[in-house]
Design goal:
histidine biosynthesis, alpha/beta, 11 helices, 8-stranded parallel barrel, TIM Barrel
Length: about 280
């Protein structure tokens, strides 16, 4: 049985990782390569690096940023933003990415996915689908397209995409949990891996999403930045709920309880006292 994946979504604006709220409000977090380095230490399974300015500004992907992040990344790295040509995909992969995320150009020209998959392989091509109010949303044009995400998901699969990154704009930064109805209808309509993003605020939200049998993984951005020990605590919670994840660190927090804010509860004074080192006075002869 394949283990469920936890992905960190790093939203980059003007060279800085930002916290995104509803695709409208952005608050600074820090430098991309620092965020990548920490997430690797914390045990994340994959990282998605998305430059939200590149497409809007009609410029090339930031290859220097990708190259710098790749130095600190020892898990699969997906890069998106500003990718419109096969040559750009080649440059992004050469800079250190393992996969590319395609969004705007897929909405305009689905055949580009077929071309890219034929050259680089389906496993390399991720189609990102933004959804708002039940309809596909165009980030570039800032509007809904009055099209079902199921139609676009099936089209992405037909064109040769190896994975779908399903992003709920409604839930972005809300801490309300994932859009389970959306996840159900999309995962049931395709036979390729689907990763859901948008709304995580507690380990229980990851668990509820991963109860959807065909969901391959869950992604989050803000949650991993602002909760202590976020990755390991989330994986420990999932393990306690019988969800199989990659948890290979001695500090696994399996015996910790989680509070309403998704943080570890304090151990009792008795337990803390038992964990203290015993003091043995120096022997005098």
């Amino acid at each position: 049985m394949l283990k469920k994946r936890l992905l960190a979504s790093l939203i980059v604006s003007n060279g800085i990782v930002v916290q995104s709220i509803g695709f409208k409000k952005y608050l600074p977090v820090g430098r991309p390569h620092i965020a990548v380095e920490y997430l690797n230490y914390w045990g994340i399974d994959e990282i998605v690096l998305l430059d939200i300015n590149a497409t809007l500004e009609k410029r090339e992907p930031d290859y220097d940023c990708i190259l710098e992040c790749a130095k600190y990344c020892f898990v699969p790295l997906t890069v998106g933003g500003g990718i419109r040509t096969v040559n750009q995909i080649r440059n992004v992969l050469s800079a250190g990415a393992d996969k590319v995320s395609i969004n705007s150009v897929f909405l305009e020209n689905p055949d580009f996915i077929s071309e890219a998959a034929a050259i680089f392989g389906e496993q390399c091509i991720v189609v990102s689908i933004d959804v708002y109010g039940g309809s596909v949303y165009s980030y570039k044009d800032k509007k809904t397209l009055n099209q079902s995400p199921v139609i676009f998901a099936r089209k992405a699969e037909q064109c040769g995409a190896g994975e779908i990154f399903l992003n709920s704009v409604d839930r972005d930064g809300s801490k309300m949990g994932y859009d389970l109805d959306l996840i159900h209808i999309v995962t049931e309509s395709v036979n390729i891996p689907v990763v859901a993003c948008g709304g995580a605020g507690h380990p229980a939200h990851f668990h509820k999403a991963l109860l959807v049998e065909n969901l391959s993984g869950v992604a989050a951005g803000n949650y991993f930045h602002f909760t202590e020990h976020s990755v390991i605590v989330t994986k420990a919670y999932l393990e306690s709920q019988k969800v199989s994840t990659r948890l290979n660190t001695y500090a696994d927090y399996r015996d910790n309880n989680i509070d309403v804010n998704g943080r570890r509860t304090r151990k009792s004074d008795e337990v803390l006292q038992s964990l203290r080192f015993k003091d043995y006075p120096q022997e005098v002869i």
